[in-house]
Amino acid sequence: MTENVRDLPQNYQAVLEWARMSSVILFFLLLRDRLQLLTHNFLSLASTIFQQFVASDNASQTFASLKRIHGLMPYFMLKAALKISNPMSMIRSKPGF
After folding, report:
1. How buried is residue 52: exposed, middle or buried, by Cβ count under 10 Å (0-12/13-18/19+)?
2. Which residues contact 2 (CB under 8 A, 6 or more apart)?
3. Distance CA 28, CA 35 (A)
4. How far is it, in rounded angstroms, from Cα 59 to Cα 48?
5. What's the pTM value of the predicted model, to 2 decimals?
């Protein structure tokens, strides 16, 4: 039993150093995989939006429909509700089922 890692035998210190390096490498590999997945998802979303609103034959009709639906949204009511309430508490609260 030792109180400090520096007091361990050299071979135990080598194992600890190997574990430290392996965990750092594993962390960066996982981070790289997450970034690749995020990039892939973002590109898929961008491709879908481009296809729907620019490249398709009925893109202008789809965009006009989206603008029409957007015009029907009562944003002034949502703005008033957000002024009265606390949005963070609304997000954090659990629904009462």
Report:
1. middle
2. 8
3. 10
4. 12
5. 0.50
Q: How far apart are CA 55 and CA 52, in angstroms?
A: 7
Work out the burial of residue 62: count CB atoms within 10 Å of its CB; fewer than 13 is exposed, 13-18 middle, 19 or more buried: middle
Cα–Cα distance between 26 and 52 in angstroms, integer? 39
What are 89's two structure tokens?
Answer: 């508490």
Task: List per-residue pLDDT tens for the chain, 97 residues long.
Answer: 788 888 888 998 899 899 999 999 999 999 999 999 999 999 999 999 999 988 999 999 999 999 999 999 998 888 888 888 887 877 777 665 4
